[in-house]
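SEVERITY: medium
COMPONENT: batch folding queue
REPORTER: lab tech (J.R.)

DESCRIPTION
The queue accepted two submissions in a row. Attaching both inputs and their returned structure tokens so the on-call engineer can compare them side by side.

ATTACHMENT 1
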Amino acid sequence: MDDPAAPYTREQGREFKRHKNLSSKSHGDSDIFLDVNQESYASLYQLLLVSLQCRDFLEVIKSDQDKKYRLTETLTKTCQDYSNVAMLSPKAKSYRNIKDSGTTIASTIVTAMRTLGIADLPPTMETGRCAVLAKVIGKALTDQRHHIKCQIFLTLAVNLEKDKEKVDIAKLTRLCIGTSSAKATAGLYQRIAFMREVAVEYKKGGGSATGKAGDDSKDDFWPVVDAKLLVLAQVTPEQRQLHFDMIYRDDLKKYGAVDNTIPVTPVKDLDAWLVSMNTAMSK
């Protein structure tokens, strides 16, 4: 192959390639080129190998950058807030990932964030960086589930005969919301009342509120909640609403009337992004 303008055989091309340090993917691509370009010039093949080497170098650099990739502080806080809001959506169809659904709660949140134009999100083709994003959201979801569960179970420990120790649904909802951007709505009151009813049954069955924040892998409370939501998803919207109404009224009888000093946000006054998150969580 002394003459770069001369045609080359497949064997000559492969011999020349042995002096190059290529990835297995680039080796395969160069062989494909040899198979379909038997009459090409040696110089063209040499240029191809250089290009493949550059691609390999860039992929190594990208992989190294992905390993060091961290979300910006602002994006991290945004992910946490969106995750908290998702877990406090009165429209959520589940609180854990549904097996074989093809989507996860984290991916639902990311899709909503992209639709709303949140800045600094890694492009979808940046799989390594998107995995970091999903991990941050996943941890935030776990932490929020733990927080909500703890707040609910704390209210079950009180003596219901002593009015001063009761935590009505308005106060409990505010405790669950904490510092997140979620808003107390009539729908959220009913959803929290539903969770508390499940917690009562769960505790009677021997379930516990113990568990570490950040690790709910052994917590079977939320699968019980999801199982009940799945049953409710099979009935008509009217029947489902009647069920939530009944649980809500029962909660008022047990834990006291709603504290009217705590403001309730009408659905029509919710910020657009909160409405979008509710819609996303309902699908």
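ATTACHMENT 2
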Amino acid sequence: MNPLQELLTEDEEMVELANKYGVNIYDIRKPRPRKEWTIFTGQILDLKTPVLTVLGTDGGACGKRTTAMVIEKEMNRRGYHTTFIATGQTGLIQGAKYGFAMDAFPLQFMIGELEREILRSNKAENPDFIIVEGQGALSHPAYASSSGILKGARPQAVILQHPPKREYLSDFPFIKTPPSVKSEIELIEHFAQTKVIGITLNHEEMNEQEIEATINEYEQVFQLPTTDVLKKGADKIVDRIIEYFFSK
């Protein structure tokens, strides 16, 4: 499986070698034929199924996909039927039934293709709940995927993933000032008609005491349920999701 932007199925030398040795090449980022690409139709505005995404304060290795999958697992355990929409190559490699590599598309089509995948999953499975994997960060100066997710998915709620000990943006060590939780929440809620309803932590470089202290601090400051889903589980976040979407 090739997760790169460079498509090996269009490389004559690689195709020749694959044929010689009986190897199949799968370009994970290879989009559908261009003539099939879709732009935003607005049909998602009429979607009744709740949609949630996990966004972050940083791009790479922030934990958005992992947190989204842990939340989905706990929702399933509680009896809710969910669909998961992958938006990057790793989610697709892991076997996501719905989704595409967003960064393989121009922004205009990225939005329409995400809307299409969400509507496709809803029609096929009639889920109780749709979870969209986050990409990048809305505040990130180099990535636009979070913007495409907020526009294409129209999530009614967002979980914000944050690495408290990260000292610079991933892949960009010259940017020494990662955004704060407060600034990212304000940006997301100002940019889109949605609400951040919970905070999840990436515990890199943190010990157990620091994780617990940060959870307590964030819950007091932001009045939002906060957890590290790998260390503490997703119960607190899923409780909030159910309260927000299903207890009205």
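NOTES FROM REPORTER
The chain is about 40% helix and 15% strand.
No errors were logged for either attachment.
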